[in-house]
TrEMBL record:
Keywords: Metal-binding, Oxidoreductase, Zinc. The keyword Lipoprotein does not apply. GO terms for molecular function: alcohol dehydrogenase (NADP+) activity; zinc ion binding. InterPro entries: ADH-like_C (IPR013149), ADH-like_N (IPR013154), ADH_Zn_CS (IPR002328), CAD-like (IPR047109), ER (IPR020843), GroES-like_sf (IPR011032), NAD(P)-bd_dom_sf (IPR036291). This is alcohol dehydrogenase (NADP(+)). PANTHER family: ALDEHYDE REDUCTASE (PTHR42683). Residues 15-342 form the Enoyl reductase (ER) domain. It catalyses: a primary alcohol + NADP(+) = an aldehyde + NADPH + H(+). Its cofactor is Zn(2+). It comes from Streptomyces violaceusniger (strain Tu 4113). It is an enzyme of class 1 (oxidoreductase). Its EC number is 1.1.1.2. It holds the Pfam family ADH_N. Gene3D superfamilies: Medium-chain alcohol dehydrogenases, catalytic domain (3.90.180.10), NAD(P)-binding Rossmann-like Domain (3.40.50.720).
């Protein structure tokens, strides 16, 4: 039997989110029921609720930065018990049979992983995300939140944390490496923290110096304004790795010029429009340009354990459910430092 739970949903593209109820499925053999404590607001929630990334499904309950506690388990569950602290990230299932799933890279499932929201289960049912009091997921797609990270600052790690951890780990950020993080927002601030904890020399590249004090406090060694043309001259050929967290169309040739020979520019933000660059920006330094998409279940657990070990969590502003629409506008205006997190208990107020 399904269960009705309270949620906030966008009833149509660009419509304000409103309180409603959605149905959660009855527990299958390997399912767990999670009582959600906190859900982070990711900019991708806004893009999808406002249908800025193409056709979407409505009503939509966004939210893929979910932290809570196991409230019930299916009869075959072995990984979790009632009372365990758990999280859910950007996807809740994958085919488990393709080469990528078998290699432990479920985020690149060839059949298409099942998105936590604005997606469709393999049986055709729509998925609803974390702006709700409860969610049901297969135990194999839940993450254990270590003791030592409170659930509110852990929630954004399930997207923002892994989105930055994955490229930093893959491209070997660490001692002796010079890493630049483009943008100090919900993603970028976690990139600074994680790259610093990995032992890299970290530089923030931001439009202005407005957030310089924050950047240095979070672990950056240097902070430069990209609005100042001299930055590109001064830093030419400096970095082993640049991670671009923005969803703006940047002058890519300028950023590529900041890489050393064999350096890599990795994009984790997705602009609405295509970007252009000259191939000579790659050719002249044997440079690479790449993209990175969240991480696997294994790597996401690795990230959570790493954050617990180093005392890392997101910088957050906790809000109630009735503040979601205001929060969306503030995110678009870059008026948050650095992640809104919804107190899900407020949905029942």
């Amino acid at each position: 039997m399904t269960t009705s739970v309270t949620a906030y949903a966008a009833p149509a593209p660009k419509a304000p989110l409103e309180k409603t109820t959605v149905e959660r499925r009855a527990l299958r053999e390997h399912d767990i029921l999670i009582e959600i404590a906190y859900a982070g607001i990711c900019h991708s929630d806004i893009h999808q609720a406002r249908e800025e990334w193409g056709s979407a499904q409505f009503p939509m309950v966004p939210g893929h930065e979910i932290a809570g506690v196991v409230a019930e388990v299916g009869p075959g569950v072995t990984k979790y018990a009632v009372g365990d602290r758990v999280g859910v990230g950007c996807f809740v299932d994958s085919c488990r049979e393709c080469a990528n799933c078998l290699a432990g890279e479920e985020q690149f499932c060839l059949k298409g992983e099942v998105q936590t929201y604005n997606g469709t289960e393999y049986d055709g049912a729509p998925t609803y995300g974390g702006y709700s009091t409860h969610i049901v997921v297969d135990e194999n797609y839940a993450l254990r939140i270590p003791e030592g990270i409170s659930l509110d600052i852990a929630a954004p790690l399930l997207c923002a944390g892994i989105t930055l951890y994955s490229p930093l780990a893959h491209w070997n950020a660490g001692p002796g490496k010079k890493v630049a993080i483009v943008g100090l927002g919900g993603l970028g601030h976690m990139g600074v923290k994680i790259a610093h904890a990995m032992g890299a020399e970290v530089t923030v590249l931001s439009q202005t110096l407005r957030k310089k004090d924050d950047g240095l406090r979070l672990g950056a060694d240097h902070f430069y304004a990209t609005g100042d043309d001299s930055t590109f001259t001064e830093l030419a050929g400096t970095f082993d790795l640049i991670v671009n967290t923005t969803s703006a169309n940047l002058p890519l040739d300028g950023y590529l010029s900041l890489l050393k020979v064999d350096g890599t520019l990795v994009h984790v933000g997705a602009p609405e429009n295509p970007s252009a660059f000259s191939q000579f920006s790659l050719i002249m330094g044997r440079r690479s340009m790449a993209g990175s998409k969240i991480g696997s279940i294994r790597e996401t657990q690795e990230m959570l354990d790493f954050c617990a070990e180093h005392g890392l969590g997101a910088e957050i502003e906790v809000i109630n459910g009735d503040q979601i629409n205001e929060a969306y506008d503030r995110v678009v205006s870059s008026d948050v430092r650095y992640r809104f997190v919804i107190d899900i208990a407020s949905l029942n107020a």
